[in-house]
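During the reporting period the student researcher (J.K.) took over the structure-prediction task from the postdoctoral fellow and processed the backlog of single-chain submissions. One of the processed entries is reproduced below for the supervisory committee.
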Amino acid sequence: MVKIFLIGRYSVGKSSLFNSITKQRNIVLEEKATTRDIIRYEMEWGQKSIRVADSAGLEDVSSVRELDEQQKLMVDEMQKSDVILMVVDGAHGVHPQDEQLVAFLRKVGLYERTILVVNKADKKKNYDENDFYRLGFQDIYPVSAVSNYGVYELLDACVEKGQESPIPEEEPEEFPAIALLGKPNVGKSTLFNSVLGQIRSYVQNEEFTTRDPIQERTIYKGQEYKFIDTAGIRSKWMHEFGPIYLSMKRAEGIVKTADIALLMVDGTEAISREDQKIAQTIQANGKACIILVNKKDQIGDPHEVLWNIRTRLRFLAYSPVVFISAKQGQGMDEMFATIQKTYTSYSTRLTTHEVNKMIRRIIVDNPIQMGERKILYVTQYASKPPRFVFFVNRPKMFTQPYINFFKNKIIETMKLTGTPVVIRIRDRKGENE
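J.K. obtained the following structure tokens:
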């Protein structure tokens, strides 16, 4: 994967160029920095996977020692990138801060990875090429983020330069982040302590004992995992802005940062409204999920429990169900085996060729009436969870039942465990439905 990072001073059009490259402003990968997001987007260009990242303007830089926390995060992102796109404003010429930024790139050894991009250069009267050569770059790429002028040539240059990069490919994450979720007093902290083999989370019968999320790493049969124990989640109306309400909000936030949600339910009770609300939060955030049925040793008829789950949590149909006893330590082998399968499925990435071959086979092997609908081609633009873009002839004809059909068939064909898939429908020009 070629990793590309856009830098430049404020208001030169970096974000516009980012949107022009990705063409999907609402589909981005975000990682929170101190005061501003670094936004990443993964896509394929030609036969190469690329990741484009954008952040706040970088200016008033002279030495690493004088950088603020946000700037340090951006420099760290640059050091991990194969190609740096330094964006300047073609309509206003070289700015003193552009020269300062070039000098800084030389100081920190990032100049050789940098391509100079002159934005707003589609009109000759707004662009003096000779003015920008004094920044020292041999090649200059004029573009217009508004009209897409020069963007394709720029991406080709990024791929070519990225292949010469000294930055090694990132190692895949060694361990998944797993959030323990469920209504209060369902046994999350007992399981947490059982997994860790120590008393790390205080356990008692009173609700909301755990208020702050507790994170610990553990190794099970040679594989490392990060577990996050959270406060039980109840409906908002029950607690108005007190410590308990705030702890619940923090717990809900953990869902967004975790890879896998372990939704724990009490096997001796019926699925409640609270269970359904937590499940909806997991689904809304597109997270992989495993449903853990606690108190296995006290359950009379597991088939009845499973029917109750599949009926009342049917929107988590992709989630496997594992019966455990947190107190007795039963079901741990099956739970960890399912976590591993789920994380593999959640992280799965296919090439465009593999995806289109799969979609063609799905259409041939299943009695679905396509009518005037045509799928031109499909690409997987991201993983965690697997996300696909269908380029079609008539987006409005691809209604929700068709989308659901392909979601289910992709899960079935790819043999995915515990993960949803996301499908976006776009027309041949790349516009959203």
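The committee noted the following: The longest strand covers residues 38-45.
J.K. will present the remaining backlog at the next meeting.
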